[in-house]
Amino acid sequence: MTRYMLIMRATDEAVEAYQDMPFDEVIAAMGRYNEELMKAGVMLAGEGLTDASEGFVVDFSAEPPLVTDGPYGETKELFNGFWILDVSSAEEAAEWAKRCPLGPGAKLEVRRVSEIDDFPQDNEWIQKEVGWRAEQAERLAEDARRAATKA
Fold first, then answer.
1. How far apart are CA 83 and CA 44, in angstroms?
2. What CA–CA distance (Å, rounded) separates 28 from 31?
3. pLDDT computed for residue 75 by the predictor
4. For residues 29 and 35, what is the distance between their CA atoms, to the nearest angstrom?
5. Alpha carbons 151 and 54: distance in angstroms, whole number
6. Rounded to whole angstroms, how far apart are CA atoms 48 and 132?
7. Cα dist from 87 to 12, 41, 90, whole Å
8. 3-class DSSP state for residue 43?
9. Rounded average pLDDT over 31-45
10. What's the CA gap between 111 and 8, in Å, rounded?
């Protein structure tokens, strides 16, 4: 299986269209889509993002890097959320992307997530990354065990 990220992007047109829809309908449509992904066993993660006015940009064109608060000038598209899917092919990722309940002005960019095997395994930093990922998995497993005992 291969991981793909579906990156939700919205233009001003899409933002306007969503403002005309009842929020409950938007949430219900996304909830049904997420439920489909989960029932199919392909959704690894997915999150929506807050409004761009709550964000900031770190621009590395200057030294030191310049931090600028949102909203951003001349934004053609905003990154509004993402899903990470574990599917068998780019074609399957595209099929899932086409089912997403987005409207005019919205786009999903679909990109393969790099795997650790895509990098030279004898590299010191790649070896450290493997260790960090193992530590993270252990922390997540421990958190899940604690949550299960509290339930």
1. 8
2. 5
3. 61
4. 10
5. 34
6. 26
7. 31, 9, 8
8. strand
9. 97
10. 11
Which stretches of the chain are DSSP H helices?
12-19, 23-39, 90-99, 124-150
100-147: per-residue pLDDT in tens?
Answer: 999 888 899 999 999 999 999 999 999 999 999 999 999 999 999 999
Tokens 């030191």 appear where? 64
What is the three-class DSSP state of 21? Answer: coil
What amino acid occupies position 31? G
Dihedral in degrees, nearest 10, Cα atoms 58, 61, 62, 63: 90
Which strand (E) or helix (H) includes residue 28?
helix 23-39
Q: Tell the residue number behind the tokens 């890097």, with chain if given.
A: 65
Partners of 149 in the β-ladder: none
Q: Which two tokens stand for residue 139?
A: 């922390």
